[in-house]
């Protein structure tokens, strides 16, 4: 005892168990055949890491089909655009000829109708391209839903 004070030593004994602060059940957004599991119980994982995959053969085929439709629609759009450019040149020639009384009103009307028809077809095909692009995006999303990823870092 130094200076009237007793040396006090304290020890804390505790027992218990550790509980995770975060817990999550992971699952695919769709049902399917499990073809790949990349982690084992107790293994550390990082957020976004691929844990498992479902069979994606059908969705991959659907995505490729959607891409092919998109390319075909774009090709048709390019073809119609070229036809419209040609029809506009033809219309201009018909107008010039009509002003000089070298062609009939019917020929001029036919050229006008051709330009209007192709312009309408081009607008429709632009809409079809937009729809095909959305279909490709949807197919990509559906394909991604077949991959199960870790929602956060931790241990499985």
Fold and architecture overview:
- By secondary structure, this protein is mainly alpha-helical.
- It is 53% helix and 10% strand.
- The protein contains two helices and five strands; from the N terminus they run E-E-E-H-H-E-E.
- The strands form two sheets. The chain has a three-stranded antiparallel beta sheet, with no helix packed on it. It has a two-stranded antiparallel sheet with strand order 2-5.
- Helix 1 (57-99) runs antiparallel to helix 2 (105-144).
- It is rod-shaped, with a radius of gyration of 35 Å.
- The two termini are 54 Å apart.
- 6% of the residues are buried.
- The mean pLDDT is 89.
Q: What is the β-strand count?
A: 5
> What proportion of the residues is helical, as a percent range?
40-55%
Instruction: Give unreliable regions as ranges.
Output: none
Distance linking N and C termini:
54 Å
What's the helix-strand series?
A: EEEHHEE
The pLDDT mean sits at 89
Placed side by side, the strands forming the largest sheet appear as 1-3-4
* Alpha carbon gyration radius: 35 Å
Biggest pleated-sheet summary: 3 strands, antiparallel
């Amino acid at each position: 005892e130094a200076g009237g004070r007793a040396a006090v030593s304290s020890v804390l004994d505790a027992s218990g168990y550790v509980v995770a602060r975060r817990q999550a059940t992971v699952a695919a957004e769709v049902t399917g055949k499990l073809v790949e599991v990349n982690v084992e119980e107790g293994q550390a994982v990082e957020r976004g890491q691929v844990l498992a995959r479902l069979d994606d053969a059908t969705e991959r085929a659907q995505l490729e089909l959607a891409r092919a439709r998109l390319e075909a629609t774009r090709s048709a759009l390019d073809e119609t655009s070229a036809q419209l450019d040609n029809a506009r040149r033809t219309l201009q020639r018909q107008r010039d000829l009509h002003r000089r009384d070298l062609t009939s009103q019917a020929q001029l009307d036919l050229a006008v109708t051709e330009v209007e028809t192709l312009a309408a077809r081009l607008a429709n095909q632009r809409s079809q391209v937009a729809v095909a692009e959305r279909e490709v995006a949807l197919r990509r999303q559906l394909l991604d839903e077949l991959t199960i990823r870790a929602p956060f870092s931790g241990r499985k």
